Amino acid sequence: MRLKKWLHLIIYVLFFLSFGYLSYSEFSGDGNFGFLMAILSLFYAYQIILFLVEKRKDDWNSSQIVVDRRIFRTITSSLAISYVYILIFLLIGTVGLYNGLFSIHPANIMWGAIITSLLVFMFSQIVQRLKS
């Protein structure tokens, strides 16, 4: 997959602006995810600065970022494993809450699903890197 460098920078800027707007709207509306959106916005601001520092001497139109198909396939399969895991986790949590088996707040089940899904994704990436 080939992607122009300026397009890559535009994608970073769009993510930065969207997460910044979501953070602002969550803080003004007493939402729970304002801090998470602010952290993601700061992460993309860091990515923009890092991208501009590293690529300042390169040509913007002729150079491309090349992603190897094997790496893309590895990431895709890890995301699929993580997605199936989070669906199973949330299904068990929903059935447990519906039947009254858990006395846990539903937001805590959602956070647990997200955090453990990220751990499953990282673990599957490590296992696939060691395998190849």
Helices, strands, pairings?
Elements: E1 2-4, H1 5-28, H2 34-54, E2 64-66, H3 69-99, H4 106-131
3D structure, described in words:
The chain is mainly alpha-helical and 132 residues long. It folds into two domains: 1-66; 68-132. It is 77% helix and 5% strand. It has helices spanning 5-28, 34-54, 69-99, 106-131; strands at residues 2-4, 64-66. It has a two-stranded antiparallel sheet. Helix 1 (5-28) runs antiparallel to helix 2 (34-54) and helix 3 (69-99) packs antiparallel against helix 4. The two termini are 20 Å apart. The relative contact order is 0.11. The mean pLDDT is 78.
Features:
132 residues, mainly alpha, 2 strands, 4 helices
Short recap of the structure:
By secondary structure, the protein is mainly α.
Annotation, overall tally of beta strands: 2
Shape: flat
Question: How many angstroms separate the termini?
Answer: 20 Å
- Major beta sheet, specifics? 2 strands, antiparallel
Structural class: mainly alpha
Order of helices and strands: EHHEHH
Number of helices: 4
Number of domains: 2
Query: What helical percentage do the residues reach?
Result: over 70%
User: What's the alpha carbon Rg, rounded to whole Å?
Assistant: 19 Å
- The low-confidence runs, each spanning 5 or more residues with pLDDT under 50, are none
What is the typical, i.e. mean, pLDDT?
A: 78
Strand content: under 5%
Strand order, largest beta sheet: 1-2
